[in-house]
# Entry
Amino acid sequence: MKLEGRWKLFGIVFLVIYLLFSLVPIAWVVISSFKTHYQTLIMPPKLFFKPTVTAYKNVFLGGMGKVFLNSTKVAVIDIFAAMVFGIPAAYSLARFKSGVTENIGFWLLSLRMAPAFGVVIPVYILMRRFHLLDTTVAVNAAHLLINIPFAVWLLKSYIEEIPVEIEESALVDGATRFQTLVHIILPVSMPMVVTVAILIFIFSWNELFFAFVLTSSEGMTVPVLVASLAGSMTFNWPLLCAISVCSMVPAFVFAFVVQRHIVRGLTLGAIR
# Structure
């Protein structure tokens, strides 16, 4: 066998192993969500069993729907706020080069790079001072410390690749900077905007640390719910698996719907 053929075979084997490593745990969670608690404890596990939807009934009829609503609210507000503040900031940093903008850009980058353990205590004190603990507002405030710098730096790099001549022609025709941003830069940057939105959604939907520290019951999100159930004395495996499946579905659906924009947004800047 030629060297090229061996490398191709090695690549195929590696991909198959990687897919099995990635998909088997997900398949196990999905299958276990349709089992009874007794069936999940049987060793070795049985692949053929009588499925039940009791766990999903407990999720949707047991008062856990509010938790999913909280996670949805947090993710949507994170996306909206990060776009509203991030797009103008990214445009300003990309087009108005000066020592001040460079310092602001570095400050935003330092916020993104700061460890969560380093900022959670000040955030907790502020939220307690303003009586916002155990609310989704507190979770949003903590998330935006990371999401806004993240959005700014990705969009800034993308906008810098857009030719300035496009804006100059619009400015010559009488357009304002805001009109140029909305009608020219934003449509051209839409692939990256969608990419940033889906990445922010995934982060906000899966984030545990800030939500765990800042909430307890009313503002609880899905990761906190899973952690609280897993931390009890007895594990209700079917319920945990059902919650996990329900939490994976929105992110998978969202990513599948906009996957074309994600690939385009992450690669177009490099191709240019």
